[in-house]
Amino acid sequence: MAACRRVQRLLLLMFICGWIGSAHGGKSDTENAAENAERGKNGAGEGKAAAPDGASSVRRSGGWKLAEEAACREDVSRICPKHAWNNNLAVLECLQDRKDVRKQGRDCILLWNYKFNLTTDPKFESVAVEVCKTTISGIKECAAEERGKGYLVSCLVDHRTNISEYQCNQYITKMTSIVFSDYRLICGFMDKCKDDINKLHCGSVNTGDKDIHSQGEVIACLEKGLVSEAEEQPAITIKEDCKKSIMRVAELSSDDFHLDRHLYFACREDRERYCENTPAGEGKVYKCLFNHKFEESMSDKCKDALSTRQKLIAQDYKVSYSLAKACKPDLRKYRCNMDTAMPRAREAKLSYLLLCLEAAVHRGQTVSGECQGEMLDYRRMLMEDYSLSPEIVLHCRGEIDTHCSGLHHKGRTLHCLMRVSRDKGILEGHCQKALQTLIQETDPGADYRIDRALNEACESVIQTACKHIRNGDPMILSCLMEHLYTDKMVEDCEHRLLELQYFISRDWK
């Protein structure tokens, strides 16, 4: 648990630096306590935890400043706003979110050592206890953590969605962004995934590799290895402990896309282009980017990162913050996570969640509007991109290469497979079953809008022949079938409708 202890001490001391460097007026009792603790440390001559290896012993009345180090001064003055220069935390956040920071030699070592060496001072857990006093007493798991072992903040991070105390929430939110910038500082990750990092050639686990921007690439490589297992059935598999760690990191970063470092850097320009006015938090930026994934001007690197994130959601719905939050009461109500005969990992799959809650809706039971809205979004997502369904990728690869290549967006590949099955009847058994299962999971017959290919092809027919029916009503599909051979029908709509209807009619449910 040495990694855990390093993480917690890092968080605590960085929190103190952030509060001390605040440019606001008066200081709260918490800020004063933090400043006194920091000054006491400096007065005792324990400078090594605050000043990085090789850094000059810059001492001002306010303590050592990262911005005054020769290796950082140029980048800080060029990149970071002047009001942030006295705040070590603000400087670190500014630099680690920029790709144009010089990443050679001492420059990079300085930033990494600053974070890493701060983890050696155990004094400041008492400050975390002060900042999160009410929160800790209200979360029994955190209250039970033994003090002085470095586990308390890890517990608070795990429960951060339940934190309402303002200062504690701000503390946890700020500090997680620092920790997630380096996979070696994520509690337990290094110990559980070191072998897999080497086995999959995901990068160096040598502490000499201190490029702060490379850390997200290591996790991204492991994530790709994880999602490829179901698609490729490779000889090399990731260990179960590492799989759990990968999914846990993905879950903990589900509310704020800044914490998914690979995706953050891959999609920064696309975020500005498509989601500039979308606030960070609660998974909103992820959802916005998902909705624009097939835009022509979306960069390939962002599309790839988004697809990996979506595939992780397909493996465990909790990786979607908004879906897990909206559907948690209904999942509990209808015991969707209580099937003792099923492996735990299978219960978390998005497909199982959708089938369980859709079954409740079809029985006439109530599922909240927020949850149904999230289900609609993810059913549409699965219909739109066949690569998010590992069974389709695994069992239909030959059919896609032969009959449907080059159609990978907006549901066209799936409709091509439907057409091949309907017109030629040549789909291999496993592919046919995988396609049938996907149609059952997404249930486009209940809402035609889930099927983007059908929706776009039939929009003009819906606006004329079916305009009297409420948008999203299942009767629209019946209306379209009634006008199948009339002058109001258009050719593209006819094809998409018959392809889908062929599969819906095979499953009376």
Automatic annotation (TrEMBL):
GO molecular function: fibroblast growth factor binding
Gene that encodes the chain: LOC107572232
InterPro entries assigned: Cys-rich_GLG1_repeat, Cys-rich_GLG1_repeat_euk, GLG1
Keywords, comma-separated and alphabetical: Glycoprotein, Membrane, Repeat, Sialic acid, Signal, Transmembrane, Transmembrane helix
Location(s) in or outside the cell: Golgi outpost; Membrane
Recorded topology in the membrane: Single-pass type I membrane protein
Family matches, as Pfam families: Cys_rich_FGFR
Signal sequence segment: 1-25
Highest taxon, organism lineage: Eukaryota
Region (Disordered): 26-61
Transmembrane parts of this sequence: none
Source species of the chain: Sinocyclocheilus grahami
Entry annotated with the keyword Transmembrane helix: yes
Main location: Golgi
Cys-rich GLG repeat segments: 237-297, 366-425, 426-488
Designated name of the protein: Golgi apparatus protein 1
UniProt GO cellular component terms: Golgi membrane
PANTHER family: GOLGI APPARATUS PROTEIN 1, SELECTIN LIGAND RELATED
Comp. bias (Basic and acidic residues): 26-41
Keyword Ribonucleoprotein attached: no
